[in-house]
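[job 4471] stage=fold_predict status=RUNNING
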Amino acid sequence: MTSVWEAIRRSRSLLLVIVLCSVANVATRGAIAADRSARLQLQVVDAIEFVTDHELSRERLEELAGHMRSVERQMQDELGVPPLEKTVRVYLFATHAAFSDYVRQHIPSVGRTDAAVRHGVFLLRQERPFVFLAAGENLIQSLRHETVHAVLNTSHPALPIWIDEGLAQCYEDPDGGHRSARAERVLKKDLLRRAAPRPQSLEKLKTMSQLGPREYAGCWANLEKLLGSPAGRATLRAYLADLREGKAPAPLSQSSTFLGERSR
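[job 4471] inference complete, writing structure tokens
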């Protein structure tokens, strides 16, 4: 035991050892073996833990934290969703390769192909939220997107995946609007000129693997429609409140917003 503590005292940074050891809580199964060769740095800003593999200024981290808190406030104002109670840990990687390698190593449920096309991953482990991100031009959107997952999944058990992904897309725009240019492009480029998938079909989907590009964009289109009207927003507020209270609300496809479309 003495030799272990001596080795720790000789390390370049006790903080580094603490950070790497704490990573053991993040794996989806088993513990993560601490990678002592990785230069991970921990900084806490506005009660959010940022772990990075590269230098980031305090000002930049404050900007990122500001976006996360902005998402929380907007969701609370519009949907009545409570703010996060658990401390969020955000892992930021300088390159997509580093992000992909780390995620695949520590979250076995994320495969090579999935990691290659994603820039952000949310994980809820023992009721604590973790976010993993790759730096890039879409970092803010990815951070806001994953923040929505953290806010929703820490307080809404049994949340349907189509609502989870739809709302995440609705709140990822830095300007605070509900528009998703990416989802709009997907739907407009449909060669068969089909309308967005309807809630009735999306409610049958249970896993991310069932969400193709059109289904994923359809999640946004239907949630954006609900958020766009007072009646739809009230329906969504009530639905989420029921989930928080452990109730089984009626499917959103039965709301007047969507039933009205079917009757026309």
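[job 4471] summary: The CA atoms of residues 197 and 218 lie 5 Å apart.
[job 4471] exit 0
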